[in-house]
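Weekly sync, protein design subgroup
Attendees: M.S., D.O., the rotation student, P.L. (late)

Item 1: inverse folding check
M.S. brought a backbone from last month's batch and wanted to see whether the design step gives back something sensible before we order anything. D.O. pointed out we never logged the input encoding, so this time it goes straight into the notes. Structure tokens as presented (569 positions):
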């Protein structure tokens, strides 16, 4: 270990800013199933248990601590542009800027997805996951991952998690691994009654959607607020767990990351059901601040999996375009791109350039042959990202891996460089001599979720997200004055206490804003949520407020705008 790295770690730069127990979020949550949380740091030997949670449908969460066509080897094409990522940065080989209370540090993030096809994977996963050591964070999501385990393993789940641990080696630790459950073995169970009978008879097995997040061992002590949640959808109103989404969220320093692995409804004609799956998943995942959708409160959200959106072409048309390597012609008919343009799925998410052939439906054992008697070859397997305004996850690679032959899907991976804010001194306990003030608030094109009787009121709820959840504060505006639901305005100001910190650190923060609709019976409905950047704000006498206009989101869909001014007093 180099002298610079030893000095950096000896300073305990990030650990000082983390209160005891922050690595495991133990705040109470509303959930259909909850396991007893454990607080405190991970075991000193670095051993982090894996976990698999089971429940009978709906959204469940756990707070257990866990601490060719597109040919390209992840070891070369997928590596971070900063070579060794976080370690390389500390040793002077990458990007790092130190500014008073904080340091901006670039880390390498690797996101991998694969529909395993319920077949044993190859012994060597390096064509897909690359050589261990090139990135700082690995998020691995799989679907249809239920196969006969190797000798020595009781379940496929144990086999799969062990396979990943062996691949990444001693230099990485899992922060969370879990599986969607349950899943009926017999697809004939098409009613709730049949499903519960199957459960009573023991005809259930671990689900097929799995998620694993690994971090470099040296980075592990500086990861906090690790949470996971899941939402089922699919057969029997989601009880079967054959479709759904898993989410792992965490903070690296003061920067929140979320990884969401999904398996959506199949078949070309079911695009509306896929859209509905996305809405259900966004509503069901409840990491972080309970009142906000996950995708609206994390600095960077990586959304990936077997999304199952199809190409609206014939099989012959797809094959002809593949032979010409005319990827643009294929993507012009891609259902996901169409849904994004219409604002009906994954609005605001970005995707890298696709310059490889469709990843489904392949002939098992074949490099590039399609089994297309019933299914049109399509780009089912995707990786997308969404970041707060003013932030960016710089994509350095996006590839399919045709060399893996065991499934009817080809694996896909994407690599990113992500800038994280690392605090050098804690914010906890600091005095709050200034306030963040939002004023002149008004909405544009807001839509209610349901009809309201008796003239509903709307108000704004604001929460500032800092490195520790205990610093989250909230303010509320005055009662809406004038206007209509389509264009409400608020006469009051929203005040949020701001801990004393350097302006450069204020620049890195975002404030969560939610607009709620209040009925006469005091029932609140979400109208939308957004993050307002504090970049460029300077406090003190005469400081001018800055205007903002942010896109409000609800359940992953756009739902109007919130406008106003923000300043520091």
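Designed sequence read out in the meeting:
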């Amino acid at each position: 270990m180099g002298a610079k790295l030893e000095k950096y770690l000896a300073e305990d730069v990030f650990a000082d800013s983390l209160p005891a127990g922050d690595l495991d979020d133990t705040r109470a949550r509303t959930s259909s199933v909850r396991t007893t949380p454990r607080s405190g740091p991970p075991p000193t030997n670095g051993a982090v248990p894996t976990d698999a949670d089971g429940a009978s449908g709906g959204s469940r969460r756990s707070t257990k601590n866990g601490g060719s066509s597109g040919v390209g080897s992840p070891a070369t094409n997928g590596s971070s542009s900063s070579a060794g990522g976080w370690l390389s940065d500390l040793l002077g080989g990458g990007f790092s800027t130190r500014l008073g209370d904080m340091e901006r540090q670039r880390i390498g993030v690797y996101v991998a997805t694969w529909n395993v096809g319920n077949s044993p994977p190859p012994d060597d996963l390096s064509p897909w996951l690359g050589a261990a050591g090139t990135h700082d964070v690995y998020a691995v999501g799989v679907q249809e991952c239920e196969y006969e385990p190797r000798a020595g393993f009781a379940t496929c789940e144990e086999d799969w998690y062990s396979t990943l641990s062996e691949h990444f080696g001693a230099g990485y630790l899992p922060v969370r691994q879990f599986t969607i459950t349950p899943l009926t073995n017999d697809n004939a169970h098409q009613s709730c009654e049949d499903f519960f009978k199957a459960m009573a008879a023991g005809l259930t097995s671990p689900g097929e959607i799995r998620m694993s997040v690994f971090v470099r061992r040296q980075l592990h002590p500086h990861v906090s607020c690790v949470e996971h949640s899941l939402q089922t959808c699919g057969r029997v109103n989601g009880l079967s767990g054959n479709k759904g989404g898993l989410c792992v969220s965490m903070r690296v320093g003061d920067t929140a990351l979320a990884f969401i692995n999904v398996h959506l409804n199949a078949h070309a004609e079911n695009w509306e059901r896929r859209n509905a799956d996305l809405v259900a998943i966004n509503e069901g995942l409840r990491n972080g601040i309970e009142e906000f959708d996950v995708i609206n409160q994390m600095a960077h959200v990586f959304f990936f999996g077997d999304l199952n959106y199809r190409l609206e072409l014939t099989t012959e048309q797809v094959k002809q375009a593949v032979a010409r390597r005319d990827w643009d012609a294929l993507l012009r008919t891609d259902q996901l791109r169409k849904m994004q343009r219409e604002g009906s799925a994954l609005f605001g998410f970005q995707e890298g350039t696709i310059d490889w052939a469709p990843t489904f439906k392949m002939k098992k054992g074949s490099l590039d042959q399609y089994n297309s008697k019933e299914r049109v070859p399509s780009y089912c397997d995707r990786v997308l990202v969404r970041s707060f305004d003013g932030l960016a996850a710089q994509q350095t690679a996006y590839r399919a891996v045709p060399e893996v032959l065991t499934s009817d899907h080809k694996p896909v991976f994407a690599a990113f460089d992500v800038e994280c804010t690392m605090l050098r001194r804690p914010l906890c306990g600091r005095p709050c001599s200034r306030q963040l003030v939002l004023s002149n608030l008004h909405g544009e094109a807001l839509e209610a979720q349901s009809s309201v009787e008796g003239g509903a009121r709307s108000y704004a709820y604001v929460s500032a997200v800092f490195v520790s959840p205990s610093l989250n504060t909230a303010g509320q505006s005055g009662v809406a004055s004038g206007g209509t639901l389509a264009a409400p305005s608020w006469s009051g100001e929203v005040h949020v206490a701001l801990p004393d910190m350097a302006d450069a650190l204020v620049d890195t923060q975002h404030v969560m804003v939610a607009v709620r609709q209040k009925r006469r019976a005091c029932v609140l409905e979400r109208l939308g949520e957004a993050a307002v950047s504090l970049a460029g704000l300077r406090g003190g006498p005469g400081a001018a407020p800055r205007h903002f206009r942010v896109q409000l989101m609800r359940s992953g869909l756009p739902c109007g705008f919130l406008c106003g001014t923000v300043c520091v007093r």
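Discussion: The CA atoms of residues 439 and 493 lie 5 Å apart. The longest strand covers residues 102-115.
Action: P.L. to compare against the previous round before Friday.
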